[in-house]
TrEMBL record:
Binding site for FAD: 125, 129, 263
Family: Belongs to the GMC oxidoreductase family.
One family name in Pfam for this protein: GMC_oxred_C
Segments forming domain Glucose-methanol-choline oxidoreductase N-terminal: 123-146, 301-315
Top-rank lineage group of the source organism: Eukaryota
Residues forming the catalytic site: 539 (proton donor), 583 (proton acceptor)
Keywords of this entry: FAD, Flavoprotein
Keyword Nuclease: no
Annotated InterPro entries: FAD/NAD-bd_sf (IPR036188), GMC_OxRdtase (IPR012132), GMC_OxRdtase_N (IPR000172), GMC_OxRtase_C (IPR007867)
The protein, known as: Glucose dehydrogenase [FAD, quinone]
Keyword Membrane belongs to the record: no
Length: 605
Protein backbone atom coordinates (compact mmCIF):
# COMPACT_ATOMS: atom_id res chain seq x y z
CA UNK A 1 0.00 0.00 0.00
CA UNK A 2 2.85 2.32 0.86
CA UNK A 3 4.48 1.86 -2.54
CA UNK A 4 1.12 2.37 -4.25
CA UNK A 5 0.73 5.64 -2.37
CA UNK A 6 4.15 6.73 -3.58
CA UNK A 7 3.25 5.83 -7.15
CA UNK A 8 -0.02 7.76 -6.93
CA UNK A 9 1.81 10.76 -5.46
CA UNK A 10 4.45 10.61 -8.17
CA UNK A 11 1.77 10.36 -10.82
CA UNK A 12 -0.01 13.42 -9.46
CA UNK A 13 3.27 15.31 -9.32
CA UNK A 14 4.00 14.44 -12.92
CA UNK A 15 0.54 15.56 -14.01
CA UNK A 16 0.91 18.79 -12.07
CA UNK A 17 4.31 19.45 -13.65
CA UNK A 18 2.93 18.72 -17.10
CA UNK A 19 -0.02 21.03 -16.46
CA UNK A 20 2.31 23.81 -15.34
CA UNK A 21 4.51 23.59 -18.42
CA UNK A 22 1.55 23.31 -20.79
CA UNK A 23 0.01 26.40 -19.15
CA UNK A 24 3.28 28.25 -19.42
CA UNK A 25 3.59 27.30 -23.10
CA UNK A 26 0.03 28.44 -23.80
CA UNK A 27 0.69 31.75 -22.06
CA UNK A 28 3.84 32.18 -24.10
CA UNK A 29 1.97 31.39 -27.31
CA UNK A 30 -0.87 33.73 -26.36
CA UNK A 31 1.60 36.52 -25.76
CA UNK A 32 3.17 35.97 -29.15
CA UNK A 33 0.18 35.29 -31.39
CA UNK A 34 0.91 38.40 -33.46
CA UNK A 35 4.64 37.81 -33.86
CA UNK A 36 7.19 35.68 -35.59
CA UNK A 37 7.01 32.43 -33.64
CA UNK A 38 8.84 30.89 -30.73
CA UNK A 39 12.44 31.10 -31.86
CA UNK A 40 12.59 34.84 -32.42
CA UNK A 41 11.52 37.59 -30.04
CA UNK A 42 8.83 39.86 -31.50
CA UNK A 43 10.02 43.24 -32.73
CA UNK A 44 8.36 46.62 -32.47
CA UNK A 45 9.48 50.12 -33.22
CA UNK A 46 8.59 51.33 -29.73
CA UNK A 47 7.95 49.49 -26.49
CA UNK A 48 6.13 51.45 -23.79
CA UNK A 49 6.33 50.07 -20.25
CA UNK A 50 3.35 51.04 -18.11
CA UNK A 51 -0.26 51.67 -19.15
CA UNK A 52 -0.97 54.65 -16.89
CA UNK A 53 -1.56 58.30 -17.77
CA UNK A 54 1.70 58.70 -19.69
CA UNK A 55 1.66 55.25 -21.27
CA UNK A 56 -1.87 55.57 -22.64
CA UNK A 57 -1.13 58.97 -24.18
CA UNK A 58 2.13 57.74 -25.73
CA UNK A 59 0.47 54.61 -27.13
CA UNK A 60 -2.16 56.80 -28.77
CA UNK A 61 0.20 59.43 -30.18
CA UNK A 62 2.97 57.11 -31.41
CA UNK A 63 0.54 54.69 -33.08
CA UNK A 64 -0.81 57.65 -35.06
CA UNK A 65 2.18 57.00 -37.34
CA UNK A 66 0.95 54.02 -39.40
CA UNK A 67 4.46 52.77 -40.17
CA UNK A 68 5.35 52.42 -36.48
CA UNK A 69 4.51 49.27 -34.55
CA UNK A 70 3.94 50.03 -30.87
CA UNK A 71 3.76 47.64 -27.91
CA UNK A 72 2.25 48.81 -24.61
CA UNK A 73 2.97 46.53 -21.65
CA UNK A 74 0.90 46.77 -18.46
CA UNK A 75 1.33 44.70 -15.28
CA UNK A 76 -2.39 44.85 -14.45
CA UNK A 77 -5.63 44.08 -16.25
CA UNK A 78 -8.55 45.94 -17.78
CA UNK A 79 -10.54 48.77 -16.21
CA UNK A 80 -14.17 47.96 -15.33
CA UNK A 81 -17.39 49.92 -14.72
CA UNK A 82 -17.22 49.64 -10.91
CA UNK A 83 -13.88 51.44 -10.96
CA UNK A 84 -15.52 54.26 -12.89
CA UNK A 85 -17.94 55.24 -10.11
CA UNK A 86 -16.50 58.58 -8.91
CA UNK A 87 -17.33 58.34 -5.18
CA UNK A 88 -15.47 55.13 -4.30
CA UNK A 89 -11.75 55.30 -5.16
CA UNK A 90 -10.88 54.16 -1.62
CA UNK A 91 -12.66 50.84 -2.29
CA UNK A 92 -10.33 50.14 -5.21
CA UNK A 93 -7.33 49.96 -2.89
CA UNK A 94 -8.64 46.56 -1.76
CA UNK A 95 -8.52 45.14 -5.29
CA UNK A 96 -5.77 43.80 -7.59
CA UNK A 97 -5.89 47.17 -9.40
CA UNK A 98 -3.64 48.58 -6.64
CA UNK A 99 0.06 47.75 -6.20
CA UNK A 100 -0.48 48.03 -2.41
CA UNK A 101 2.79 49.79 -1.70
CA UNK A 102 3.81 50.72 1.84
CA UNK A 103 6.49 53.13 2.97
CA UNK A 104 9.28 52.08 5.30
CA UNK A 105 8.99 52.78 9.02
CA UNK A 106 9.99 56.34 9.87
CA UNK A 107 11.04 58.26 12.96
CA UNK A 108 9.26 61.39 11.72
CA UNK A 109 5.85 60.39 10.24
CA UNK A 110 3.11 57.78 9.82
CA UNK A 111 3.15 56.83 13.53
CA UNK A 112 -0.62 56.30 13.51
CA UNK A 113 -0.59 53.94 10.52
CA UNK A 114 -0.66 50.19 10.96
CA UNK A 115 2.89 49.02 11.72
CA UNK A 116 4.01 52.63 11.14
CA UNK A 117 3.79 52.17 7.35
CA UNK A 118 1.94 54.72 5.23
CA UNK A 119 -0.19 53.39 2.35
CA UNK A 120 0.85 54.48 -1.14
CA UNK A 121 -1.89 53.43 -3.58
CA UNK A 122 -0.69 53.15 -7.20
CA UNK A 123 -2.65 51.84 -10.17
CA UNK A 124 -1.88 48.35 -11.47
CA UNK A 125 -4.42 48.45 -14.29
CA UNK A 126 -4.80 49.89 -17.77
CA UNK A 127 -5.23 53.56 -17.00
CA UNK A 128 -2.83 53.32 -14.04
CA UNK A 129 -3.45 55.58 -11.07
CA UNK A 130 -6.03 57.57 -13.08
CA UNK A 131 -8.30 54.58 -12.27
CA UNK A 132 -7.70 54.94 -8.50
CA UNK A 133 -7.27 58.68 -7.99
CA UNK A 134 -9.75 61.40 -7.04
CA UNK A 135 -9.99 62.73 -10.61
CA UNK A 136 -8.82 66.26 -9.70
CA UNK A 137 -7.44 68.16 -12.70
CA UNK A 138 -4.97 70.73 -11.38
CA UNK A 139 -1.90 71.75 -13.39
CA UNK A 140 0.10 73.86 -10.97
CA UNK A 141 1.26 77.37 -11.81
CA UNK A 142 3.62 79.23 -14.13
CA UNK A 143 6.34 79.46 -11.47
CA UNK A 144 6.51 75.65 -11.21
CA UNK A 145 7.51 75.15 -14.83
CA UNK A 146 9.57 78.31 -15.18
CA UNK A 147 11.42 76.88 -12.19
CA UNK A 148 12.11 73.68 -14.15
CA UNK A 149 13.51 75.77 -16.99
CA UNK A 150 15.65 77.81 -14.60
CA UNK A 151 17.29 74.54 -13.53
CA UNK A 152 18.57 74.15 -17.09
CA UNK A 153 15.63 72.31 -18.67
CA UNK A 154 15.22 74.42 -21.78
CA UNK A 155 11.84 73.89 -23.42
CA UNK A 156 10.02 73.12 -20.16
CA UNK A 157 9.04 76.66 -19.16
CA UNK A 158 5.36 77.47 -18.77
CA UNK A 159 4.94 79.04 -22.20
CA UNK A 160 6.52 75.93 -23.75
CA UNK A 161 4.41 73.36 -21.96
CA UNK A 162 1.01 75.13 -21.91
CA UNK A 163 0.20 73.95 -25.48
CA UNK A 164 0.65 70.35 -24.31
CA UNK A 165 -1.87 70.82 -21.51
CA UNK A 166 -4.26 72.22 -24.10
CA UNK A 167 -3.66 69.40 -26.56
CA UNK A 168 -5.18 66.80 -24.23
CA UNK A 169 -7.95 68.92 -22.77
CA UNK A 170 -11.64 68.90 -23.62
CA UNK A 171 -13.08 71.53 -21.28
CA UNK A 172 -16.85 71.28 -20.86
CA UNK A 173 -17.37 73.91 -18.14
CA UNK A 174 -19.03 76.72 -20.17
CA UNK A 175 -17.52 79.62 -18.23
CA UNK A 176 -14.00 78.22 -18.76
CA UNK A 177 -14.32 76.75 -22.25
CA UNK A 178 -14.42 80.23 -23.79
CA UNK A 179 -10.99 81.05 -22.38
CA UNK A 180 -8.93 79.81 -25.31
CA UNK A 181 -5.65 81.00 -23.78
CA UNK A 182 -5.84 78.54 -20.89
CA UNK A 183 -8.34 75.94 -22.09
CA UNK A 184 -9.22 73.80 -25.08
CA UNK A 185 -12.28 71.90 -26.25
CA UNK A 186 -10.43 69.77 -28.83
CA UNK A 187 -8.69 67.11 -26.73
CA UNK A 188 -9.74 63.69 -25.51
CA UNK A 189 -9.60 64.36 -21.76
CA UNK A 190 -13.00 65.62 -20.64
CA UNK A 191 -12.88 68.18 -17.80
CA UNK A 192 -16.04 69.12 -15.92
CA UNK A 193 -17.50 70.13 -12.58
CA UNK A 194 -19.09 67.11 -10.85
CA UNK A 195 -22.87 66.98 -11.30
CA UNK A 196 -23.83 66.71 -7.63
CA UNK A 197 -22.94 69.29 -4.97
CA UNK A 198 -23.66 69.32 -1.28
CA UNK A 199 -24.84 72.49 0.47
CA UNK A 200 -21.73 72.22 2.60
CA UNK A 201 -19.44 72.55 -0.42
CA UNK A 202 -21.21 75.76 -1.37
CA UNK A 203 -20.72 76.99 2.20
CA UNK A 204 -16.99 76.17 2.02
CA UNK A 205 -16.62 78.21 -1.17
CA UNK A 206 -18.58 81.11 0.34
CA UNK A 207 -16.39 80.96 3.45
CA UNK A 208 -13.33 81.52 1.27
CA UNK A 209 -15.02 84.45 -0.45
CA UNK A 210 -16.03 85.95 2.88
CA UNK A 211 -12.39 85.85 3.94
CA UNK A 212 -11.53 88.05 0.97
CA UNK A 213 -10.50 85.54 -1.67
CA UNK A 214 -11.89 85.34 -5.21
CA UNK A 215 -13.55 82.48 -7.00
CA UNK A 216 -10.82 81.48 -9.47
CA UNK A 217 -9.99 79.26 -12.39
CA UNK A 218 -6.98 77.71 -10.69
CA UNK A 219 -5.72 76.38 -14.03
CA UNK A 220 -5.42 79.88 -15.48
CA UNK A 221 -3.41 82.95 -14.44
CA UNK A 222 -3.37 82.31 -10.67
CA UNK A 223 -4.46 79.49 -8.38
CA UNK A 224 -4.81 81.68 -5.26
CA UNK A 225 -8.50 81.62 -4.35
CA UNK A 226 -11.35 79.13 -4.06
CA UNK A 227 -13.09 76.89 -6.57
CA UNK A 228 -15.13 73.78 -7.11
CA UNK A 229 -12.96 70.96 -8.44
CA UNK A 230 -12.31 70.64 -12.15
CA UNK A 231 -12.42 66.87 -12.63
CA UNK A 232 -11.82 64.18 -15.25
CA UNK A 233 -15.40 62.91 -15.30
CA UNK A 234 -17.59 62.27 -18.33
CA UNK A 235 -21.27 61.34 -18.21
CA UNK A 236 -20.98 60.94 -14.42
CA UNK A 237 -18.21 58.34 -14.62
CA UNK A 238 -14.46 58.47 -14.18
CA UNK A 239 -12.76 59.47 -17.42
CA UNK A 240 -9.41 57.74 -16.99
CA UNK A 241 -6.36 57.67 -19.23
CA UNK A 242 -7.59 54.35 -20.58
CA UNK A 243 -11.08 55.65 -21.40
CA UNK A 244 -9.81 58.87 -22.96
CA UNK A 245 -6.70 57.81 -24.86
CA UNK A 246 -6.35 54.04 -25.21
CA UNK A 247 -9.80 52.52 -25.53
CA UNK A 248 -10.70 54.57 -28.65
CA UNK A 249 -7.57 53.34 -30.52
CA UNK A 250 -7.31 49.73 -29.33
CA UNK A 251 -8.27 48.49 -32.79
CA UNK A 252 -5.30 50.11 -34.56
CA UNK A 253 -3.41 47.31 -36.29
CA UNK A 254 -0.03 48.78 -35.36
CA UNK A 255 -0.84 49.00 -31.64
CA UNK A 256 -0.45 45.93 -29.42
CA UNK A 257 -1.35 45.82 -25.74
CA UNK A 258 -0.05 43.15 -23.36
CA UNK A 259 -1.86 43.07 -20.00
CA UNK A 260 -0.97 41.07 -16.87
CA UNK A 261 2.64 41.40 -18.01
CA UNK A 262 5.31 42.44 -15.52
CA UNK A 263 8.45 43.89 -17.11
CA UNK A 264 11.45 42.54 -15.22
CA UNK A 265 14.31 44.33 -16.97
CA UNK A 266 15.31 46.51 -19.89
CA UNK A 267 17.59 44.66 -22.31
CA UNK A 268 20.76 46.67 -22.86
CA UNK A 269 23.77 45.80 -24.99
CA UNK A 270 26.66 46.32 -22.58
CA UNK A 271 29.14 47.03 -25.39
CA UNK A 272 27.15 49.56 -27.37
CA UNK A 273 25.04 50.72 -24.38
CA UNK A 274 21.91 50.58 -26.53
CA UNK A 275 18.54 49.50 -25.11
CA UNK A 276 17.13 46.96 -27.54
CA UNK A 277 14.08 45.56 -25.76
CA UNK A 278 12.54 44.30 -22.55
CA UNK A 279 11.96 41.06 -20.72
CA UNK A 280 8.60 40.47 -19.06
CA UNK A 281 6.47 37.77 -17.48
CA UNK A 282 2.93 37.15 -18.67
CA UNK A 283 0.74 36.06 -15.73
CA UNK A 284 3.92 35.52 -13.73
CA UNK A 285 4.98 32.59 -15.89
CA UNK A 286 7.97 32.11 -18.18
CA UNK A 287 9.91 35.23 -19.20
CA UNK A 288 9.19 36.63 -22.64
CA UNK A 289 11.38 39.03 -24.59
CA UNK A 290 10.29 41.76 -26.98
CA UNK A 291 12.70 43.84 -29.03
CA UNK A 292 12.55 47.53 -29.88
CA UNK A 293 13.96 48.76 -33.18
CA UNK A 294 13.82 52.40 -32.12
CA UNK A 295 13.22 52.99 -28.40
CA UNK A 296 12.12 51.61 -25.06
CA UNK A 297 10.07 54.14 -23.07
CA UNK A 298 9.50 53.71 -19.35
CA UNK A 299 6.18 55.17 -18.22
CA UNK A 300 5.79 53.05 -15.11
CA UNK A 301 5.65 55.90 -12.60
CA UNK A 302 7.81 57.34 -9.85
CA UNK A 303 8.15 53.97 -8.07
CA UNK A 304 8.33 51.41 -10.87
CA UNK A 305 10.42 53.35 -13.38
CA UNK A 306 13.39 53.81 -11.01
CA UNK A 307 12.95 50.23 -9.82
CA UNK A 308 13.16 48.96 -13.39
CA UNK A 309 16.16 51.11 -14.25
CA UNK A 310 18.02 49.77 -11.23
CA UNK A 311 17.06 46.17 -12.00
CA UNK A 312 18.55 46.79 -15.46
CA UNK A 313 21.88 48.06 -14.12
CA UNK A 314 21.22 51.82 -14.21
CA UNK A 315 21.45 53.42 -10.80
CA UNK A 316 23.75 54.25 -7.88
CA UNK A 317 26.72 51.91 -8.29
CA UNK A 318 27.19 51.26 -4.57
CA UNK A 319 23.52 50.33 -4.12
CA UNK A 320 23.43 48.09 -7.21
CA UNK A 321 26.55 46.25 -6.07
CA UNK A 322 24.98 45.81 -2.65
CA UNK A 323 22.04 43.92 -4.22
CA UNK A 324 24.34 42.09 -6.67
CA UNK A 325 23.28 43.79 -9.89
CA UNK A 326 25.91 44.48 -12.53
CA UNK A 327 26.36 48.22 -13.05
CA UNK A 328 25.91 49.53 -16.59
CA UNK A 329 25.47 53.22 -15.75
CA UNK A 330 26.17 54.92 -12.43
CA UNK A 331 23.26 57.32 -11.93
CA UNK A 332 21.25 58.99 -9.13
CA UNK A 333 18.17 56.87 -9.84
CA UNK A 334 15.68 56.74 -6.97
CA UNK A 335 16.79 59.99 -5.31
CA UNK A 336 14.83 63.28 -5.18
CA UNK A 337 11.55 61.59 -4.13
CA UNK A 338 8.83 64.16 -3.33
CA UNK A 339 5.17 63.85 -2.45
CA UNK A 340 2.22 65.99 -1.42
CA UNK A 341 1.37 65.16 2.17
CA UNK A 342 -1.20 66.39 4.70
CA UNK A 343 -2.91 65.84 8.03
CA UNK A 344 -5.71 63.28 7.81
CA UNK A 345 -7.78 64.08 10.91
CA UNK A 346 -8.67 67.78 10.75
CA UNK A 347 -12.38 67.25 11.40
CA UNK A 348 -15.18 69.76 12.02
CA UNK A 349 -18.65 68.94 13.33
CA UNK A 350 -22.00 70.43 12.24
CA UNK A 351 -25.48 70.83 13.66
CA UNK A 352 -27.26 70.12 10.35
CA UNK A 353 -27.16 67.37 7.70
CA UNK A 354 -25.76 69.30 4.75
CA UNK A 355 -22.77 67.09 3.87
CA UNK A 356 -22.32 63.37 3.23
CA UNK A 357 -23.37 60.62 5.63
CA UNK A 358 -22.85 56.90 5.10
CA UNK A 359 -24.67 55.46 8.12
CA UNK A 360 -28.17 55.32 6.60
CA UNK A 361 -28.66 52.25 4.42
CA UNK A 362 -31.86 53.59 2.83
CA UNK A 363 -30.25 56.88 1.78
CA UNK A 364 -27.24 54.98 0.48
CA UNK A 365 -29.48 52.76 -1.67
CA UNK A 366 -31.28 55.84 -3.01
CA UNK A 367 -27.89 57.23 -4.02
CA UNK A 368 -27.05 54.01 -5.88
CA UNK A 369 -30.39 54.07 -7.74
CA UNK A 370 -29.94 57.73 -8.64
CA UNK A 371 -26.54 56.99 -10.09
CA UNK A 372 -27.44 54.01 -12.27
CA UNK A 373 -30.81 55.36 -13.45
CA UNK A 374 -30.19 59.11 -13.66
CA UNK A 375 -26.38 59.46 -13.59
CA UNK A 376 -26.82 61.80 -10.64
CA UNK A 377 -26.57 61.76 -6.87
CA UNK A 378 -23.78 61.41 -4.35
CA UNK A 379 -21.98 58.64 -6.26
CA UNK A 380 -20.91 61.29 -8.80
CA UNK A 381 -18.82 63.16 -6.18
CA UNK A 382 -15.10 62.40 -6.76
CA UNK A 383 -14.04 60.51 -3.64
CA UNK A 384 -16.22 62.75 -1.49
CA UNK A 385 -14.10 65.82 -2.31
CA UNK A 386 -15.80 68.80 -3.91
CA UNK A 387 -13.79 72.02 -3.65
CA UNK A 388 -10.52 73.56 -2.55
CA UNK A 389 -8.75 76.80 -1.90
CA UNK A 390 -5.16 77.91 -2.33
CA UNK A 391 -3.72 80.46 0.11
CA UNK A 392 -0.26 81.95 0.57
CA UNK A 393 0.98 81.26 4.09
CA UNK A 394 4.35 83.08 4.23
CA UNK A 395 8.01 82.85 3.32
CA UNK A 396 9.79 79.81 4.74
CA UNK A 397 13.20 80.51 3.28
CA UNK A 398 12.53 79.80 -0.38
CA UNK A 399 9.91 82.31 -1.45
CA UNK A 400 6.20 82.50 -0.72
CA UNK A 401 4.67 79.14 0.21
CA UNK A 402 1.16 78.09 -0.76
CA UNK A 403 -1.11 75.69 1.11
CA UNK A 404 -3.96 73.78 -0.53
CA UNK A 405 -7.13 73.40 1.57
CA UNK A 406 -8.99 70.43 0.09
CA UNK A 407 -12.60 70.07 1.26
CA UNK A 408 -14.47 66.78 1.79
CA UNK A 409 -18.09 66.80 2.94
CA UNK A 410 -17.57 63.87 5.30
CA UNK A 411 -14.79 62.27 7.37
CA UNK A 412 -12.80 59.08 7.02
CA UNK A 413 -14.17 58.14 10.44
CA UNK A 414 -17.74 58.27 9.07
CA UNK A 415 -16.98 55.48 6.61
CA UNK A 416 -14.83 52.82 8.22
CA UNK A 417 -13.88 51.31 4.87
CA UNK A 418 -12.21 54.60 3.92
CA UNK A 419 -10.39 54.71 7.28
CA UNK A 420 -8.96 51.25 6.66
CA UNK A 421 -7.97 52.09 3.08
CA UNK A 422 -6.00 55.01 4.55
CA UNK A 423 -4.19 52.42 6.66
CA UNK A 424 -4.66 54.20 10.00
CA UNK A 425 -4.71 52.16 13.18
CA UNK A 426 -8.08 50.77 14.25
CA UNK A 427 -7.45 51.52 17.92
CA UNK A 428 -7.19 55.23 17.11
CA UNK A 429 -10.48 55.08 15.23
CA UNK A 430 -12.34 53.48 18.13
CA UNK A 431 -10.69 55.51 20.89
CA UNK A 432 -11.15 58.94 19.32
CA UNK A 433 -13.43 58.98 16.29
CA UNK A 434 -16.19 56.44 16.76
CA UNK A 435 -18.70 59.23 17.71
CA UNK A 436 -18.23 60.69 14.21
CA UNK A 437 -19.62 57.55 12.59
CA UNK A 438 -23.19 58.82 12.88
CA UNK A 439 -22.51 62.54 13.19
CA UNK A 440 -22.55 65.32 10.61
CA UNK A 441 -18.96 66.40 10.06
CA UNK A 442 -16.50 67.38 7.35
CA UNK A 443 -12.77 67.38 6.67
CA UNK A 444 -10.32 69.98 5.42
CA UNK A 445 -6.99 68.59 4.27
CA UNK A 446 -4.21 71.21 4.59
CA UNK A 447 -1.93 69.92 1.84
CA UNK A 448 1.78 70.71 1.66
CA UNK A 449 2.28 71.35 -2.05
CA UNK A 450 5.91 72.53 -2.12
CA UNK A 451 7.71 70.13 0.24
CA UNK A 452 11.27 70.70 1.38
CA UNK A 453 11.83 67.09 2.45
CA UNK A 454 13.19 64.53 -0.01
CA UNK A 455 12.97 60.74 0.09
CA UNK A 456 14.33 57.86 -1.94
CA UNK A 457 13.39 54.63 -3.73
CA UNK A 458 15.77 51.67 -3.31
CA UNK A 459 15.74 47.99 -4.18
CA UNK A 460 15.26 45.45 -1.41
CA UNK A 461 16.86 42.80 -3.59
CA UNK A 462 17.28 41.95 -7.28
CA UNK A 463 14.00 40.06 -7.53
CA UNK A 464 11.74 42.12 -9.84
CA UNK A 465 8.64 40.78 -8.07
CA UNK A 466 9.71 42.28 -4.73
CA UNK A 467 8.30 45.71 -3.97
CA UNK A 468 11.01 48.35 -3.74
CA UNK A 469 11.89 50.10 -0.50
CA UNK A 470 10.07 53.45 -0.23
CA UNK A 471 11.70 55.93 2.12
CA UNK A 472 9.21 58.82 2.02
CA UNK A 473 11.27 60.78 4.56
CA UNK A 474 8.29 63.02 5.35
CA UNK A 475 8.99 65.98 7.63
CA UNK A 476 12.74 65.46 7.75
CA UNK A 477 12.77 69.20 7.05
CA UNK A 478 10.86 70.87 9.87
CA UNK A 479 9.59 73.66 7.62
CA UNK A 480 7.09 71.18 6.15
CA UNK A 481 5.48 70.74 9.56
CA UNK A 482 5.34 74.51 10.05
CA UNK A 483 3.60 75.05 6.70
CA UNK A 484 0.91 72.44 7.43
CA UNK A 485 0.27 74.04 10.84
CA UNK A 486 -0.22 77.36 9.03
CA UNK A 487 -2.76 75.55 6.84
CA UNK A 488 -4.58 74.21 9.90
CA UNK A 489 -4.92 77.77 11.20
CA UNK A 490 -6.30 78.95 7.84
CA UNK A 491 -8.82 76.09 7.81
CA UNK A 492 -9.99 77.01 11.30
CA UNK A 493 -10.48 80.62 10.20
CA UNK A 494 -12.80 79.42 7.45
CA UNK A 495 -15.13 77.82 10.00
CA UNK A 496 -15.55 81.16 11.82
CA UNK A 497 -17.21 82.79 8.80
CA UNK A 498 -20.97 83.28 8.56
CA UNK A 499 -21.11 80.78 5.70
CA UNK A 500 -20.00 77.86 7.89
CA UNK A 501 -21.28 79.15 11.24
CA UNK A 502 -24.72 78.92 9.65
CA UNK A 503 -24.35 75.15 10.04
CA UNK A 504 -22.66 75.26 13.43
CA UNK A 505 -19.18 74.32 12.14
CA UNK A 506 -16.86 73.60 15.06
CA UNK A 507 -13.45 71.95 15.39
CA UNK A 508 -13.79 68.38 16.69
CA UNK A 509 -12.08 68.54 20.05
CA UNK A 510 -11.43 64.93 20.99
CA UNK A 511 -7.76 64.13 20.56
CA UNK A 512 -5.87 60.96 19.77
CA UNK A 513 -4.32 59.46 22.89
CA UNK A 514 -0.65 59.87 21.87
CA UNK A 515 -1.20 63.66 21.68
CA UNK A 516 -3.30 64.10 24.84
CA UNK A 517 -0.45 65.59 26.87
CA UNK A 518 -0.19 68.58 24.52
CA UNK A 519 -2.44 71.60 24.97
CA UNK A 520 -5.34 71.25 22.56
CA UNK A 521 -4.94 73.37 19.40
CA UNK A 522 -1.35 74.37 20.26
CA UNK A 523 1.39 74.07 17.62
CA UNK A 524 2.87 71.14 19.56
CA UNK A 525 -0.54 69.44 19.56
CA UNK A 526 -0.86 69.75 15.79
CA UNK A 527 2.72 68.65 15.17
CA UNK A 528 1.97 65.48 17.14
CA UNK A 529 -1.18 64.89 15.05
CA UNK A 530 0.65 65.51 11.77
CA UNK A 531 3.36 62.98 12.64
CA UNK A 532 0.77 60.40 13.71
CA UNK A 533 -2.06 60.95 11.23
CA UNK A 534 0.14 61.46 8.15
CA UNK A 535 -1.89 61.27 4.96
CA UNK A 536 -0.44 61.13 1.45
CA UNK A 537 -2.26 62.68 -1.51
CA UNK A 538 -0.64 60.01 -3.73
CA UNK A 539 1.64 62.29 -5.76
CA UNK A 540 5.15 60.74 -5.74
CA UNK A 541 7.51 62.34 -8.27
CA UNK A 542 11.14 63.10 -9.01
CA UNK A 543 12.96 59.77 -8.81
CA UNK A 544 14.40 59.92 -12.35
CA UNK A 545 15.14 63.61 -12.28
CA UNK A 546 15.38 65.64 -15.49
CA UNK A 547 18.34 67.99 -15.71
CA UNK A 548 21.06 69.46 -17.91
CA UNK A 549 24.58 68.10 -18.43
CA UNK A 550 25.98 69.98 -15.45
CA UNK A 551 23.47 68.50 -12.99
CA UNK A 552 25.08 65.48 -11.27
CA UNK A 553 21.68 64.36 -9.95
CA UNK A 554 19.99 64.25 -13.37
CA UNK A 555 18.97 60.79 -14.58
CA UNK A 556 17.45 61.96 -17.89
CA UNK A 557 18.21 64.94 -20.12
CA UNK A 558 15.67 67.54 -21.19
CA UNK A 559 14.51 65.23 -24.00
CA UNK A 560 13.94 62.59 -21.29
CA UNK A 561 16.65 60.31 -22.68
CA UNK A 562 18.39 58.23 -20.00
CA UNK A 563 21.96 59.43 -19.60
CA UNK A 564 24.60 56.92 -20.64
CA UNK A 565 22.22 54.60 -22.50
CA UNK A 566 20.89 55.08 -26.01
CA UNK A 567 17.32 54.48 -27.20
CA UNK A 568 15.90 54.56 -23.67
CA UNK A 569 13.62 57.29 -22.30
CA UNK A 570 11.54 57.88 -19.20
CA UNK A 571 8.23 59.70 -19.50
CA UNK A 572 6.18 59.96 -16.31
CA UNK A 573 6.09 61.76 -12.95
CA UNK A 574 9.54 60.47 -12.04
CA UNK A 575 11.26 63.00 -14.36
CA UNK A 576 9.91 66.06 -12.53
CA UNK A 577 12.77 68.04 -10.92
CA UNK A 578 10.29 69.46 -8.40
CA UNK A 579 6.67 68.59 -7.71
CA UNK A 580 4.19 71.13 -9.17
CA UNK A 581 1.95 73.04 -6.79
CA UNK A 582 -1.14 71.27 -8.07
CA UNK A 583 -2.11 67.64 -8.44
CA UNK A 584 0.14 65.51 -10.62
CA UNK A 585 -2.25 63.81 -13.05
CA UNK A 586 -2.51 66.82 -15.39
CA UNK A 587 1.28 67.40 -15.52
CA UNK A 588 1.86 63.72 -16.39
CA UNK A 589 -0.50 64.02 -19.34
CA UNK A 590 1.44 67.10 -20.41
CA UNK A 591 4.79 65.29 -20.09
CA UNK A 592 3.55 62.43 -22.27
CA UNK A 593 2.23 64.78 -24.95
CA UNK A 594 5.57 66.59 -25.09
CA UNK A 595 7.48 63.29 -25.11
CA UNK A 596 5.51 62.09 -28.11
CA UNK A 597 6.48 65.21 -30.04
CA UNK A 598 10.13 64.84 -28.99
CA UNK A 599 10.14 61.26 -30.27
CA UNK A 600 8.47 62.20 -33.54
CA UNK A 601 11.00 65.00 -34.03
CA UNK A 602 13.85 62.50 -33.61
CA UNK A 603 12.51 59.69 -35.78
CA UNK A 604 10.45 61.41 -38.49
CA UNK A 605 13.27 63.58 -39.79
Amino acid sequence: MESEGIQISSSRTARASTLFYVTALLAFLQTNTHVHGLLKAPEYDFIIVGGGAAGCVLANRLSEVPDWNVLLIEAGGEENFIQDIPLIPFVLEYTPADWKYRTERSNSSCFGSKFGLCHWPRGRVLGGTTVLNYMIYSRGIRADYDGWEALGNTGWGYDDILPYFLKSEHMTIPSLANDTKYHSTKGELVITYPIHRTKLAEAFINAGLQRGYNYVDYNAESEIGYSYLQTTIKDARRWSAYRAFLEPVRTRKNLHVATHSLVTKVLIDENTRVAYGVEYKKWGLLPVQARARKEVILSAGAINSPQLLMLSGIGPSDHLQEVQIKVIQDSKVGYNLQDHVTLGNLYFTLNQSVGLRFDNIFDDLVGVVEYFLKRDGILTIPGGTEAFGFENVGDFGNGEQTIELLFAASTLANLHLAWHSWGARTDILFESYLPLHNKDAFTIFPILIRPYSRGRILLKNKNPCTHPLIDANYFSDRRDIEIIIKGIRRASELTKTDALQKYGAELYRKTILPCKDHEFDSDAFWECNIRYMTFTIFHPVGTCKMGNDSDPDAVVDRALRVRGVKQLRVSDASIMPTVPSGHTMAPVYMIAEKTADLIKADWLK
